[in-house]
């Protein structure tokens, strides 16, 4: 199953090349990921209240087509794989106007406790992620 | 007494007008303020560990001269006034190369506990701020 | 007339106090302002293509209630005053869930040419802004 | 040859996990890359004035150890490979206090003209990058 979010390139997200700066795509992917997780009953805020942290440990991103100010973008997020201690998401970023794919990314997150030690994900979170991946 | 910090306009801080976007100055002021407080023995991290929060409740900023990519800027921070529950800082931002003043700002912060209730600042913090203001 | 935009507090916009960092409100206000201008036929991109720049020269913002991750916010933007060379906007930021006003701001923008010299706004832009202000 | 830059985790760069948000590392790497290029006589600003754009087309980053507010970090940048139309940089990010490596990254940039068409890098830029890579 896919989570979808839409956003627009903010003026503050442009750089002097007149494009959306590449660092912001990482944040748009995060919007997609957190929306997907929320839809499947595993919201970040709730996880953190339970002492479960999911920091990003790896990002790969490929930029294909530049985006300019005010263009609408759609981020499609999928879960590529779920392990007991980590989860990998993949993202496709589309320019809404013409459905051109402008970027692709993957990120891996590792489950940690409040002291920063790797831990097994709680069973309900694992199940939610596996359901989302199916 | 004055706290001074220096930074350079990062490429990611430019916008499509080819200037440093105005939102980043707020963050540079924060760098100046936290440096000043640290120098006077009232570091943000330590305050927060003690359950003392200092959220910003008011910002005023005047932009006089635009900054471009890679220009060095110096932020001079002073404490304008200290009250038992709030503190007001003022900032002057200079372009290092020619000492031109490019912006001026003031911010007010209110002391709160972890539940977000206004509270009196701890005595040692009040003293540190008053010493810094002198 | 009022321009309205909605956004959600992004995870990347939180800080270690667990709140939306105060610098991001400036960017949300910009979203409201640029949307209002676009609705009235004066889009930033078009203005800049015509050599008309509208840098922000003054910001005042008052933070009343903190926002946390994932809360929806609505920004209402109005034009307070229009002059031949400058325009002042005012903003009210609401937490969508309960309509609590969380922040208020004003910003002033000055019309400049590509060399950074103050100039009179083009007639059509002045008219658009005055119509928007009415 | 290596370019080195230092920065400190800004308060605004923290997130509600109490760590430096992962998106900012991308910007620190950019600081390292632009400093390295400047040292070798190929400053971004000058390139762009000549109509030579170097947008980032690929980022890979691995986060090993979290960083907290106010920690000093050092970014070491090297050129991994230079081609006539693209260049790949690699980065090591260290926590200054104890020299722990906290992240590693690579980015690829492609040379484009002002219309966004891939083009060969100017000879002097190629030479500067090859010298920097040696």
Account of the 3D structure:
The structure is a homotetramer of 134-residue chains. Chain A has 134 residues and is of the alpha+beta class. Chain A has one domain: Roll (Thiol Ester Dehydrase, Chain A), CATH 3.10.129.10. Helix content of chain A is 25%, strand content 34%. The first copy, chain A, has three helices and five strands. Chain A has a five-stranded antiparallel beta sheet with strand order 1-3-4-5-2. In chain A, β4 (86-95) and β5 (100-110) form a beta hairpin. The first copy, chain A, is elongated and about 45 Å long. The model of chain A has no long low-confidence stretch (mean pLDDT 95). Chains in contact: A-B, A-C, A-D, B-C, B-D, C-D. At the A-D interface, α1 and β2 of A face α1 and β2 of D.
């Amino acid at each position: 199953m896919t989570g979808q979010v839409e956003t627009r390139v903010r003026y503050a997200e442009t750089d002097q090349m007149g494009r959306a700066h590449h660092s912001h795509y990482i944040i748009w992917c995060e919007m997609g990921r957190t929306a997907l997780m929320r839809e499947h009953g595993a919201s970040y805020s709730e996880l953190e209240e339970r002492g479960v942290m999911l920091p990003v440990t790896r990002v790969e991103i490929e930029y294909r087509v530049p985006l300019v100010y005010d263009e609408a973008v759609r981020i499609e997020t999928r879960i590529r794989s779920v392990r007991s201690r980590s989860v990998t998401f993949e993202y496709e970023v589309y320019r809404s106007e013409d459905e051109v794919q402008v970027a692709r990314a993957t990120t891996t997150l590792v489950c940690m406790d409040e002291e920063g030690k790797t831990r097994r994900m709680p069973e309900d979170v694992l199940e939610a992620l596996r359901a989302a991946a199916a």
